[in-house]
Here is the input.
Amino acid sequence: MSNETNIEVSEEVIVKYLAGEASPEEAIAIDDWCARAEANQQLFDRLSHTWQQTGSTMSYRTPDLKQEWQHWKTANTTSSGTKKSKVRTLRWQLAAAATVIILLGAALVTFLLRQPGPRQQQVLVSANSQQVQTSLPDQSQVKIHPGGSIAYADNFHTGRTVQLQTGEVYFAVQHDPQRPFNIQAGELNIRVIGTAFTVNKNSDSIVVKVDNGAVMLSTMKDSIVLKGGTKGCYLIADKQLKRTEAITRTTVNTTTIHRSLRFEDKDLGAVIRQLETAYGVPIVLSNPQLAKCRISTAFDDKPLQYVLDVISASLDLTYHASYDTIYLDGYGCD
Here is the structure.
């Protein structure tokens, strides 16, 4: 240590002071040094006591004074180092604890966010070789034709939404203005406004026929409303939604042929001739220009009514039946 006179207080200076040989500057330095810290004063008192015990006539005994001085330095250094070490340790522990708390909090939040909500159970209803008729939880009636299947959540009452997975299904919906009835068929959403209709979903199209009331068909880009006696068709590949005129089932051959029909960029005239042969029904193009229209599509084990719905939607045509003949109407193709 040093004072304002730049004199360092050491054991030699203290011994000179006790022996009465210190200069005035050294004496002032020791007085200032003792006044600055209680530990300094305590050390000086111990050294002075040791000096007095040796007798005033005895010479300075270096080992004793150095031992006291070293004891003081060791005690202060250890005490200061211990305090600093404890402070550093405490700060590190607090920082580590804070870090752990933050990490645990973040982990807890992440864990909670990743936890799935209550899992909804799905009810699946399918028809294999025979038609299945059943009631939904809201008492709406469904008739699932062979090969068709639907699914809905076990909490159906909160949303009244049915997933049409495949096939043809007839719906007679229980009216409830507070809870709209929805059918999700791939990208097509069917919102029920009326009561009775049929939905037929296949790999290439979805056809909706409304017996009475009304339904709204919608996609991300378009929507149409179908009233009783009309049909709508959604072409999956083209993402097109079109309205077609419905026909009475009793006027058209509804027999399903168990064969595949493939048309690859074929003119409509050739398609009509092949359909007439396959279904045994005469089909007339009201506008001869329609024969030049070209179409690419395929049908597997489909009734004629379904085939006509898809062709009409694809080429923007309408059709009707008169006695045993089917007439296709339209403006022709460029």
Q: What stands out?
A: The longest helix spans residues 62-114. The radius of gyration is 50 Å. The longest strand covers residues 161-172.
